[in-house]
C-alpha cells in the first residue's frame, strides 16, 4: 500500500499555507524567501535561481537577457553622495567667502538673507568650522562670483613644481626597429 503524502508549503513570513507556489521575494536586504501574495507586497520579487543545464556531463552556464524594466531599474538606481561630488572644496574657503562678501559690501546677515540661509551658517563658513554642502557651495559661488571647488588633477600639481617620483617608464627606454 503506497501512501501519497502531500507536502504543503507555507509562507515564510506569516505562516499561512500557500495555495500555489508562492512568490520568491526579497525584503529589505534579507535572503529571498517564498511568501504568499499578501506578504509579497512588502518586498521586491526576485527570479528563482535556475539549475544549470547539463550538456554531455558538463554544466552549461546560461544567462538571461534583462527585461526592459530590470534594465531601467538598474539605470535609475538610487544615487549616493559620491555620485554628486564633483571635486574637493578648497582649503582656504573661509578666506575666499569672507573677502568676496566684504568686496561686495555685504554683511553676514545680508548674505544670509540673499542666499536664504541662516546667518550662523555664514559665520561657520567664514570661521572654517563647517564646509558648505554642494547646494550651499553653488549658491555662494553664484552670488559672490568665486570658485570654492578644486577640480585640478595631480598632473597640474606636478607641472606647478610639485614633487614627482621616478616611475618605471622614466627608467626604461623602448628600442624600436
TrEMBL record:
| Gene Ontology MF: a single term | DNA binding
The protein's matches in Pfam families, at most eight in alphabetical order, are given as:
HTH_3
Which PROSITE patterns does this one have? HTH_CROC1
Q: What SMART domains does the record point to? A: HTH_XRE
The family database entries (InterPro entries) matched by this protein are listed as: Cro/C1-type_HTH, Lambda_DNA-bd_dom_sf, MJ0586
Give residue ranges for domain HTH cro/C1-type. 97-152
Official protein name in the record: Transcriptional regulator, XRE family
